[in-house]
Amino acid sequence: MGYLQVFTNAIVVALMAMYVYENQRRNGDVSARLDRIEKELDLEIFSETDIRKLVEIEDQQIAVTRKIAEIENQQPKNSDKGVTYIRWGKTQCDGHSTETIYSGQVGGGHYSHSGASVNYICLPNNPHVAQPLKLHDNYAYLYGAEYQIFDFNQPQGIRSAIGDHDVACAACLAKGKISSIIIPGKILNHR
Q: At the top level of its lineage, which domain of life is listed (predicted)?
């Protein structure tokens, strides 16, 4: 799930919350009117028109309650929520309640170009190009990352013969998890 979809889901949930709040407020208004009518029923006899209005108000209250229940049922369950992250150097995500959103390769700016992105990104293997690129235009280029590990500089624990091979990555969704951040040099205890 990409940032755009997470942002879209957040907007939908916020709109649903506003709708539920407004309906609960209306429900409270209807309940207050019903209480006033019940008190008036004890004091005087109502006409047939008044009784119809009372029945109409009760029907509205039932409709609002049903609509609120419907909206609550449409909200995503906790098991559908989670945290997204990138797993560098792997094509699959692993772990309990974790799924692979897509696999790809690491990309970023060329090491010799100035003005490139600071952080690497996980490029999907099958991107959608919005329009064909025109010749002789200036573009921000993305380059695939490669391992520059050879026999003479191979760290312990890294397999041999990976020099000049593409670096894999996978976008992952860990369901039912919460996010965290590590801030070097700080001790924080926020909830």
A: Eukaryota
Calculate the CA 124 to chain-centre distance.
19
For residues 30 and 58, membership in a common domain is answered with yes
Helix (H), strand (E) counts: the chain = 2, 5
Residue 117 lies in a domain: yes
CA-atom Rg of the chain in angstroms: 29
In this structure, how many other beta carbons lie within 10 angstroms of the beta carbon of residue 150?
12
pTM over 0.70: no
Parallel, antiparallel, or unpaired for β 168-175 and 143-144? Answer: unpaired
DSSP string, 56-91: HHHHHHHHHHHHHHHHHHHSPPGGG-EEEEEEET-S
Q: What share of residues in the chain are helix, strand, coil (percent, to 5)? A: 40, 20, 45
Using alpha carbons, select from 29, 22, 106, 21 the residue that is nearest to residue 61.
Answer: 29
99, 177 contact by CB (below 8 A): no
Asked, for residue 188, whether it belongs to a domain, the answer is: no
The domain total for the chain is: 2
Residue 174 has phi, psi (to 5 degrees) of -95, 105
Shared-domain flag, residues 167 and 100: yes
Assigned domain for 184 exists: no
Domain containing residue 84: 80-129+138-175
- The string of pLDDT tens digits covering residues 114-147 is 776 678 889 888 877 766 666 766 666 778 888 8
